[in-house]
């Protein structure tokens, strides 16, 4: 069967009778657009591929070859299973033609990363964003907090600022104006939150400032 899957690229003798080793090959895509891309790439005049026409693996960049399957287990670990039969990615196409004019060969314009590489890149991006967030939101003193807190409040919040605390509050103006919720931040970063005149649980964040 391997001898019958002869590569249709001009100048390539993969899987012909005079070759000893079988070379993996791939049939043309069923999608018309990708099929036309393949036909155009191999530079064969007036070529109309049959249903059994194939292009061997020698003409595809390694980034388009899937040699293993990856599955993420429930515990988050990754199971890697080598494939007995390699296959192409959905966007794979020929770009290597050693027996053709040099200008027909080229490096694919985009590099496809493996699932593990994409996962690593995403984790690195998340770590960078977290580090940036920590840097931008660091509170080193109550004075710095006084200077920056207004930028962190949403629209509609009002505030009163003193040397010992900052009072932020939201007024309900739908009927009789009244303070709906308020938040009082003291110099030691003890926080009092009031809702409808009820004091909610008090929480201290003085540890953010370090040892005083």
From TrEMBL:
Gene Ontology MF annotations: sequence-specific DNA binding; zinc ion binding
Any one Pfam family match given in the protein's UniProt record, by short name: THAP
Transmembrane segments: none
Record's keyword terms, sorted: Cell cycle, Coiled coil, DNA-binding, Metal-binding, Nucleus, Transcription, Transcription regulation, Zinc, Zinc-finger
Keyword Heme: no
GO cellular component: nucleoplasm
PROSITE patterns: ZF_THAP
Organism of origin: Araneus ventricosus
Protein name: THAP-type domain-containing protein
Major site of localization recorded for this protein: nucleus
């Amino acid at each position: 069967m391997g001898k019958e899957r002869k590569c249709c690229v001009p100048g390539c003798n993969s899987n012909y009778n005079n070759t000893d080793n079988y070379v993996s090959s791939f049939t043309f895509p069923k999608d018309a657009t990708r099929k036309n891309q393949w036909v155009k790439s191999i530079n064969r005049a007036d070529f109309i591929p049959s249903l059994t026409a194939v292009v061997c693996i020698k003409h595809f960049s390694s980034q388009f070859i899937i040699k293993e399957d990856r599955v993420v287990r429930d515990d988050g670990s990754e199971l890697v299973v080598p494939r007995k039969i390699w296959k192409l990615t959905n966007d794979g196409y020929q770009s290597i033609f050693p027996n053709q004019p040099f200008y027909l060969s080229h490096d694919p314009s985009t590099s496809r990363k493996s699932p593990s590489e994409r996962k690593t890149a995403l984790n690195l991006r998340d770590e960078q964003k977290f580090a940036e967030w920590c840097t931008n939101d660091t509170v080193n003193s109550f004075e710095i907090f006084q200077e920056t807190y207004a930028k962190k409040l949403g629209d509609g919040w009002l505030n009163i600022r003193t040397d010992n605390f900052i009072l932020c509050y939201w007024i309900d103006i739908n009927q009789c104006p009244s303070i709906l919720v308020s938040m009082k931040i003291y110099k030691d970063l003890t926080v009092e939150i009031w809702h409808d005149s009820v004091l909610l649980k008090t929480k201290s964040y003085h540890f953010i400032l370090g040892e005083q």
